[in-house]
Amino acid sequence: MTTINQNCYDSVTEAIRREAAKLLQEQTVAAVVGYVAGRRPGTASPAVAKSAEDAEKLVFSPACVNNLALFLSKAKKGIVPKGKTAIVAKGCDLRALAGLIGESQLNREDLVVIGVACAGVFSAAGERSLPLSDANIAAKCRECTIHTPEGVDVVAGTLPQLPDFDPVEAKELARLEAMTPQERWAFWKEHFSRCIRCMACRQICPFCYCEQCLCDRNRPQAVESSPRPAGNLAWHIVRAMHLAGRCAGCAECERSCPMDIPLNLLNRRMAQELKEQYQYEAGTTPQEKGPLNQYREDDDQSFIK
Amino acid sequence: MSRIGVFVCHCGENISRTVDVERVAGEAAQLPGVAYSCDYKYMCSDPGQNLLKKALAEHNLDGVLVAACSPRMHEKTFRKAAQSAGLNPYLCDMGNIREHCSWVHEDREAATAKASDIVKLMVERVKRGKALAPITVPVTKRALVIGGGIAGIQAALDIADAGKEVILVEREPSIGGHMAQLSETFPTLDCSQCIMTPKMVDVANHPNITLYTYAEIEKVDGYIGNFQVTIRRKARSVVEDKCTGCGVCTSKCPKKKIPNEFDQNLGMRSAIYVPFPQAVPNTPVIDRENCTMFQSGKCGVCAKVCGPQAIDYEQQDTLVVEAVGAVVVATGFKLYSIDRKPEESPIKGYGEFGYGLIPDVIDGLTFERLASASGPTGGKILRPSDGKEPRQVVFIQCVGSRAREKGISYCSKICCMYTAKHTMLYRHKVHDGQAYVFYMDARTPGKGYDEFWRRAVEVEDAVYIRGMVSRLYQRDGKIVVMGSDTLVGVQVEIEADLVVLATAVQAQDGADLLAQKLGISYDKYNFYSEAHAKLKPVECATAGIYLAGACQGPKDIPDTVSQASAAAAKVITLFSKDQLERDPVVAKVNEKYCVGCLQCKKVCPYGAVEEKEIRDRQGNLVKVVANVNAGVCGGCGTCQATCPSKSVELDGYTDEQIMAMIEAL
């Protein structure tokens, strides 16, 4: 089993504290969105540091699973005080920030991004008392392409040598791909049938920032709101479609799902579609227009029969 | 409860043949919210409309559905009728049971059921309709004319003479277009430049015309009455305001051996040049690709000799934005050419004519330059290869045109006449020369045209051979033309000194790109499409944009000028009103729920969506939302389909209406 040296997280923590304290002392920012250690060992929770003292409490560890970009989106307005904000961002959070900037939800000038060299975080069910290893690392981190942050204001920490992890999610995707449409349909039908419509996937998604979700509307009602097969299916299709080309791949939806629906598989499948059809990937650079928002002469039109 | 009236039309027999209209009306009467229903033979007729008006009053109806033809056909008719009876016209809708039903089905039973369904769902839509008021938009009384050939010049002068401002944009350094290149014009043989250049000067001097030469259309935003056009003024490297047009720079320029495009590459010009002596404006332009200063950084002769110091090597392209209310597109044509890159040519299979390989095989426009008094030979007909006077000239018509198998099925229209003209010009200059013409048909409709052609044959002794040429090849300094005379039924072989091909008229390069910027349609040959072939020949389907000249299809000068004046008349008509009325079917944003992701702004093809800041009473920013400019909105509904939170809706097509329609089925 390959274990990741815990020291790299400590160096990130140190750098974050130093940078956050400086930013807050110099009043460059009104707040720093980061993580603090949780009450139980092996946990961490999002926190907003508003003073240099608060900054001393910030940490970075494999337990820092949350996508903090969520707290800057409109859905969570009021949590972060007004004014310029600093944010601690892992690679996946960076993609979310870029997406939110591209969708006019954030201004890059109002942000100080403290990008962390992130070796990975715990999976939802992983044992947290042990150091991060092959056994308890999140599936998304196994295939992460931005361990070292890009386009940020400050880079915190340095990355250790990382082992090659088994890409379990990619394998699962390939397994689904190899199924017949009927088998795949049965696979998703089974998963969606367990959905209790708690909407945790929506609430935790940095891109679900609508003030009123289409699925909560009742005049006219587009999506049935009670947890029944038709409405469940409709909701998950709406979610997947709305995230196509936007999803940052943080897999927070899947982590927060109490029914263990493998939502990130769906997200990744849509991303793959966008890549194949339009050579487009959600990245760390804000895009003016996604491929689904524009018409190009050379767009594939073979689907029009 | 609604009180809706349903009127089912027979359309003579068009609908009643396959749809049981009485049953449709009967079933409609049973629908909840329908207070009255009937059927009638011709709802659009005067008695039909009166029936509607009477029922509106008698039954106190609050909504009307006419189940008949396409709304494109008669929506206006019925809305007007409903309005005259006191109903808001937007509460009157049409259910299409003709194009969508009776015309496309044969099974009477099934067609009747479908017609009933159409009525059922449309009733749901009418029920949820809103009374709307038309939107009025102001008209900017300035016109843009794109293209400075005879079409653009005529349109610009006509509009300007009516007292309206005109922006005339020309891609080349001078206006004049193809007509300025011609020697004489059919059917009167008057000198082209003599009738063209005064008009060019009129354009330059007209107080109402702003002329941008060496400029192209970069972007077109807006809509009828309110276009914003971005024009790219390409860097001339000569400051127009300072230049006096003295011509010292062009005469002193050390680089003089550049083929002159205006003379079809026969003559030479310098790197800083005026395309032709009568150019308007008479301001030179530096051809940066050929200028030593731009290529190696060493020269600067023109700057040194220029008295008013008008040369500016640092000049950059500039963008100008002009607000106009109407656009006349007059971008003209080009001649089909296979000389340079035959493999990229859309028309295959004229290799046998040796065009581009044999120097003495030229096209019609090159012949015009040879015959022109201002041309490279001073008006003498001389072969490009050795400068000798040709004794026998063969003209070949329909090269490219009317050859479906080779890519172009249309007739280029002008070639029969200009070839006849060429034979005469040749005869007038080379008295003992002989002209031969290979032709498919001589097409000479037009005032004085057939007489002109007969004169070429009967008086000027041109030999017309009905048939096509199979091959050209060089032999002993001559070009051997092998063809057939299909009237006599023999093969003919002519030793020619010069061969002139009447190549097809094609749409200008980039015509499709300009059409995309303007949002107008074009055919498979890139000629622009008029709104109606007979009744709207100068209008585009896009409101406020008009066509003039050969950009719409091959045209001769008289037709082009007529159409340009017609387009100008349309523009002047548009400008006679201060306000335009527009359909109120536009998108509206629900500001409460809009989160300002502005996806709608990104997808809007009309540029109608802008950001709007919502502030509280203290002036603090509450949020940014999308806002639709009703004047610009085209009512396409793309924003409605895109909005993730469904916070924007199209009046008349709200989600509530659409969902109710679906649920009614």
TrEMBL record, chain A:
Residues 185-207, 238-268 form the 4Fe-4S ferredoxin-type domain. Residues 282-305 are annotated as: Disordered. The keyword NAD does not apply. Keywords: Iron, Iron-sulfur, Metal-binding. InterPro entries: 4Fe4S_Fe-S-bd, 4Fe4S_Fe_S_CS, Helical_ferredxn. One of its GO terms (molecular function) is metal ion binding. This is 4Fe-4S dicluster domain-containing protein. It comes from Geomesophilobacter sediminis.
UniProtKB/TrEMBL annotation, chain B:
This is CoB--CoM heterodisulfide reductase iron-sulfur subunit A family protein. Residues 234-263, 282-316, 585-614, 624-653 form the 4Fe-4S ferredoxin-type domain. Its cofactor is FAD. One of its GO terms (molecular function) is 4 iron, 4 sulfur cluster binding. The keyword Ion transport does not apply. Belongs to the HdrA family. It comes from Geomesophilobacter sediminis. It holds the Pfam family FAD_oxidored. The keyword 4Fe-4S applies. InterPro entries: 4Fe4S_Fe-S-bd, 4Fe4S_Fe_S_CS, FAD/NAD-bd_sf, HdrA-like. Keywords: 4Fe-4S, FAD, Flavoprotein, Iron, Iron-sulfur, Metal-binding, Oxidoreductase. Gene3D superfamilies: 3.30.70.20, FAD/NAD(P)-binding domain, NAD(P)-binding Rossmann-like Domain. SUPFAM superfamilies: 4Fe-4S ferredoxins (SSF54862), FAD/NAD(P)-binding domain (SSF51905).
